[in-house]
Design a protein that fits this description.
The complex is a heterodimer of chains A (345) and B (299). Chain A is mainly alpha-helical. Helices cover 63% and strands 3% of the residues of chain A. Chain A has a two-stranded antiparallel ribbon. Chain A has a two-stranded antiparallel sheet with strand order 3-4. The longest helix of chain B has 54 residues, at 2-55. Classes of the chains: A mainly alpha (345), B mainly alpha (299). Chain A: Belongs to the binding-protein-dependent transport system permease family.
Chain lengths: 345, 299
């Protein structure tokens, strides 16, 4: 991948402490690897244990909860329902948008209730993901190409792109809320009178614009790092061969930057699929800007177990998207993040 | 003879023309680069500038469109810290510093060992561990919040600091580990070997040679870790109380004197206060931070 090209980062020597040629092949090497394995186990243990406590345990308990009924007053019927095992009922309720009926059993959720919003929230989440990541990729690529050139003031531009990245998302949301206020600068600048957060499409585009502003720098920096791995000689050789700028972009830049680009797109996609802060603060999830994450949060206070089922569904969706990226689109994150041990054998 | 000179001068003229055209193209390209650079600068800085400039406007001039504030005031910063409308911005700042500090220190203390092992040692299952840690950093916060909400309610931890610190570790620790792993991979490890030749154990070599060399990497990682904890909103918005809420929650819930009037100028002042230290930190350590941000992706 990118490491094969040109001025590679200093690769750690393939083996650990002692140079390979000192150790006789065979038994000695195996012993050394075994002892390194023990070291590694000790060094990794705290991290693994910590992650097990803060991630693995909550996931497992969320899955367990998701198969339980919610005890308490049913918001639809006002009747008290007892807990107990629910089988896959919570999942069925979300996917089929069913709510429990006063007479027992389930009916289609009335519009406006949380239970009836699963598919619209899913559609909104995917809309935000596809649109924001597409804009961020194109804009980020363009920014990266500019920043890769040599010109006076380049370091100023590179510093400036870090500013949106450094601003907390909650503050970003409030800032764009102000920009998109009815009397705000956006309407004045474009001489429009749009109630940006008042109806569906303006609200959606407000979220998209704010998100693109906030996260394009991250994309641009990742792509820039990929561009800088391409040796200048490749371009010079291609120039001598009489290629046009477009050919150089299509035949050299794109294929060589692709590994870094894919990882950047994967990171941003997974991030966008769990989008919460921005629409929650900017639009409050109104006007069809409720993402899956917002739906989970709104559900928590109405029933843990049902919320757990929804969060598990969200997790599965994100996992599937990541799987598709890695398996079919060749975003090799682990290799890109460069385990050095790989080149050894 | 004459034809040859004529040919030569024609050729030279042509070359001159070609050179000039090339120079012109170069100038054009340079010009386009500058125009693009200005567009990028404007796109990135103008909204942030608007926040800062609004923070200095008098409330009556909230929607003013002048590029420089015409009625400059510091009142908004006073309002931001004012607690009479139920806002606790000052307390929230301290909370964020405390939560971010603890999360950063804990994550670094735990993660530095894992990063060393992943960068330096050969062992079976390394890819599995790397994959697990990367996966953990991409993990959706909502998948954690429901069980934690119930658990913390049951054991009476709702609204406590530990209820905010522990979930933050779930995404700061993976970030710390993989950023440090890629930094560690690029360090001059020959020095460790020399130290071992001179009779140090692997542990001593780590403490006496590698730790001082690794200090900048660790410091950069600490900044990234602190920023990501400082920016966290989802978990804090659900698990914090008025007394423990971090700044992100305080700003999101910022209330004004009248319920139907949004105190924009005070919110922008609060946003400026929250952002300026971060921006300064990021600009000062720009190179290192960019290296740390992109480390996981391309190396």
């Amino acid at each position: 991948m990118a490491t094969e090209l040109g001025p590679t980062p200093v690769k750690a020597p393939a083996s650990g402490g002692t140079p390979v040629h000192h150790a006789p092949k065979g038994v000695g090497e195996d012993n050394r690897i075994a002892s390194q394995g023990r070291w590694a186990a000790w060094l990794l243990a705290p991290t693994i244990v910590a992650l097990a406590v803060v991630i693995v345990y909550p996931i497992i308990s969320a899955i367990v909860m998701s198969f339980q009924k919610d005890a308490g007053l049913d918001p639809a019927t006002g009747l008290f329902t007892a807990g107990g095992p629910a089988g896959i009922q919570n999942y069925v309720n979300w996917l089929a948008q069913q709510c429990s009926a006063p007479s027992g059993g389930t009916v289609a959720c009335p519009p406006g209730t949380l239970g009836g919003q699963f598919w619209s929230a899913t559609a909104t989440t995917f809309f935000f993901t596809v649109v924001t990541v597409a804009f961020e990729t194109v804009l980020g690529f363009w920014m990266a190409m500019i920043m890769a050139r040599t010109f006076r003031g380049r370091s100023l531009v590179r510093a400036a792109v870090l500013v949106p990245w450094a601003i907390p998302t909650a503050v970003t949301a409030k800032l764009w809320f102000f920009i998109f206020a009815f009397e705000g600068i956006a309407n004045k600048l474009f001489n429009t009178t749009i109630l940006w957060t008042g109806s569906e499409w303006p609200a959606k585009w407000a979220v998209v614009i704010a998100d693109v502003w906030k996260t394009t720098p991250f994309m641009a920096l990742l792509i820039l790092a990929g561009l800088q791995m391409i040796p200048a000689e490749v371009y010079e050789a291609a120039k001598v061969d009489g290629t046009t700028a477009w050919q150089r972009f299509r035949l050299i830049t794109l294929p060589l930057v692709k590994p870094a680009l894919m990882v950047a797109i994967l990171f941003r996609t997974l991030d966008a699929l769990r989008m919460f802060d921005l629409p929650y603060i900017l639009t409050g999830g109104a006007n069809n800007t409720t993402t899956l994450s917002i739906l989970v949060i709104n559900q928590i206070r109405q029933g843990f177990n049902s919320a757990a089922a929804l969060s598990t569904i969200t997790f599965i969706i994100i996992f599937l998207v990541a799987f598709i990226f890695v398996r079919f689109l060749g975003a090799n994150v682990v290799e890109q993040s460069g385990a050095s041990g790989k080149g050894k054998k | 003879m004459t034809t040859a000179t004529a040919d030569a001068s024609a050729l030279r003229a042509q070359q001159d023309k070609g050179r000039k055209a090339a120079q012109n193209r170069e100038k054009w390209a340079q010009g386009r680069t500058y125009i693009s650079a200005v567009v990028i600068l404007f796109w990135c800085l103008a909204p942030a500038y608007w926040m800062v400039v609004t923070a200095f406007r008098e409330v009556g001039f909230t929607y003013d469109t002048s590029i420089l504030p015409t009625h400059v005031t510091l009142d908004n910063f006073k309002t931001a810290f004012d607690t009479s409308f139920g806002n606790r911005f000052g307390q929230a700042l301290l909370n964020s510093v405390f939560i971010g500090g603890v999360v950063t220190i804990v994550s670094l203390l735990i993660g530095v060992f894992a990063a060393y092992a992943l960068a330096r040692l050969n062992f079976r299952g390394k890819f599995l561990v790397l994959g697990f840690i990367l996966g953990a950093s991409m993990f959706p916060g909502v998948a954690l919040i429901t069980p934690l909400f119930q658990l913390f309610t049951n054991i009476g931890w709702m609204g406590t600091y530990q209820a905010l610190i522990i979930p933050n570790i779930s995404f700061v620790l993976p970030l710390t580990v993989y950023t440090m792993t890629s930094f560690f991979r690029e360090m001059p490890w020959e020095l460790e070997e020399s130290a071992r030749v001179d009779g140090c154990t692997q542990g001593q070599a780590f403490r006496k040679v590698i730790m001082p060399l690794a200090a900048p990497a660790i410091f950069t990682t600490a900044i990234l870790a602190f920023i990501s904890s400082w920016n966290e909103f989802l978990i804090a918005s659900q698990l914090s109380s008025d007394a423990t809420q971090p700044v992100t929650v305080a700003i999101a819930n910022f209330a004004g004197a009248q319920p139907n009037q949004i105190p924009y100028t005070a919110i922008m002042a609060a946003g400026t206060i929250v952002t300026i230290p971060l921006v300064i930190l990021v600009l000062v350590f720009q190179r290192k931070i960019v290296a740390g941000l992109t480390a996981g992706a391309v190396k």
